[in-house]
Design a protein that fits this description.
The chain folds into 2 domains: 131 residues, Beta Polymerase, domain 2, CATH 3.30.460; 118 residues, Up-down Bundle (Four Helix Bundle (Hemerythrin (Met), subunit A)), CATH 1.20.120. Helix content is 46%, strand content 18%. The chain has 10 helices and 8 strands. The strands form 2 sheets. Strands 3-4-5-2-1-7 form a 6-stranded mixed sheet, with helices on both faces. Strands 6-8 form a two-stranded parallel ribbon. The radius of gyration is 22 Å and the shape is elongated.
């Protein structure tokens, strides 16, 4: 099987498909993520969707690790409840080290997708391809109101941790805020899909602005990064404002920071 991917990934992908097609419980293997979106390189994950026969789906889910082990050279694996995707088995193979996500679903699950995957192998290719062509495909971009409903709560949480002296907690919250709020809003501003902070360094404006939200382990530096995060959110909000803004913000948050800091 010829695959348009770098060497270690290509060899592993061939091995994965060869192993999975020997399992008669499995109907197809599809690729998603950067494999279909572009930008696949030596450091990319292999994001794979494994179609399972509906009549054996429940039993197969309990044997996912054994299936992953049948590929060979499996170093570690765990399920994806922490990202809200229990169907996912997150694997590390090697050496050479390659991260592989195996998401086990049935064909019926392919009616609504966030992206259209590429079919790598199927027992009935035309049937699977028809499902893929008819699927509703929509990336889960967040609305202006989604950002507004969360931004001030998360910024206040960061401020509270900072004022208590929990600098690592505050720095972690600033990183979370970049990923969940600022990064997606910069992508939105540029007309891109809201992919967190993925490849945000390639956007000169976004990268220069976000650099100012990454502090050193120092109270004054964290405070400055927080203030810049507040300012960036307010600025980005203007490009596509929410229907309902949070009352008293950002003034109330800034007063909270100043008032607590003076006590």
């Amino acid at each position: 099987m010829t695959t348009p991917v770098p060497g270690p990934h290509s060899a592993l992908l061939d091995r994965i498909v060869a192993a999975l097609r020997r399992d008669d419980r499995l109907e197809a293997v599809l690729a998603s993520g950067s494999f279909v979106n572009g930008g696949f390189d030596d450091h990319s994950d292999l994001d794979l969707v494994v179609l399972v026969r509906p009549d054996v789906y429940v039993a197969t889910m309990s044997e996912r690790r054994a299936i992953a082990e049948s590929i060979g050279a499996l170093l570690a694996a765990f399920t994806g409840e922490h990202v809200g995707e229990p169907r996912l088995l997150i694997c590390l193979y090697g050496p050479p080290l390659v991260h592989v996500d195996l998401k086990f679903v049935t064909l019926e699950n392919m009616r609504s997708l966030v992206e259209r995957p590429r079919l790598l192998w199927a027992r009935e290719p035309s049937k699977v391809q028809e499902y893929l062509e008819l699927a509703d495909v929509a990336w889960p971009n967040r609305s202006p109101q989604w950002f507004e409903d969360r931004a001030w709560v998360w910024l206040h949480y960061c401020a509270a941790k900072l004022l208590r002296g929990e600098l690592y907690e505050a720095i972690g919250m600033l990183a979370f805020f970049r990923e969940q709020i600022l990064g997606p809003m910069f992508h939105r501003e540029a007309g891109r899909l809201q992919r967190g902070i993925r490849r945000i360094e390639q956007d000169a404006r976004a990268s220069a602005a976000l650099t100012q939200t990454v502090p050193a382990l120092d109270r004054a530096a964290v405070l400055l990064a927080l203030e810049r995060s507040i300012g960036l959110y307010v600025e980005l909000q203007q490009g596509d404002p929410p229907p309902a803004t949070t009352s008293h913000m950002p003034e109330a948050l800034r007063d909270y920071i100043k008032g607590a800091g003076s006590r």
